[in-house]
Amino acid sequence: MSQEPDAPQTIAASPQPAEQAQAESPLCKARKQQKILEAAARAFAGQDFHKVRTDDIAAAAGVGKGTLFRYFAGKEELFVATMVYSVEVASAEMDRALAGIYGPQERLETACRQLVDFYQKNECLFQLLHGDKALHDQPRHAEFHARLQQQRDKIAQILRDGQAAGCFRQKFDAAVAARLLFGMMRTAMRVPEFKDRPADEIAGTLLDLFLRGAGKGHAQCRPTAGAPAAPSGEAPPGGVGG
User: Fold this and answer.
1) Is residue 223 domain-resident?
2) Can you give the pLDDT at residue 143?
3) Helix 54-61 × helix 26-46 angle, to 10°
4) Total structural domains in the chain?
């Protein structure tokens, strides 16, 4: 991938004074980095990666371009760091929402509702979940996928706790189910039918299908020996909570 023409070579043209760099507290640095990541998220979510200019990101963050490149070596690294940031913030919000909630089904409902609500309110961060896969060679790309996996692992653990408590069926793989639920959430938020609907409604619809499936669970739904096959497209009963 070609580097942006105005990338790190300009760092030496406008160096930060050594005294100023040394005087910055860790909190000040963290806030500055967060501003850069937030500005980058808006920029990368709004247009194609190759059209984004680091000059514009630095200006939106209120920092000099030299400062931006003190934190991130180039646009590719900044992009992947922004993807990592999007997952970290969403996970932290989910953890806060789950604090003090102990029932497995309540925890699952809260986690799903919180993630949908968070990404509705932070659409630019949601868009980054579908980022440019051509940047897989960046050092932090593996970290991005690891953070995503940690998020899914939390949902999987809620499902396992529900299995242990007898809230959910035993015969399903919690890790696979967690991936499927995440896929349902991400798909739902990208389809026109759910546009502008409240997070509670979206999460409720997803969880109803996820926990109960599309079938009624009635005996007459199951074909008896010698009976004609069910109409094409009819789903068998049996959800996670069935």
Assistant:
1) no
2) 86
3) 130
4) 1
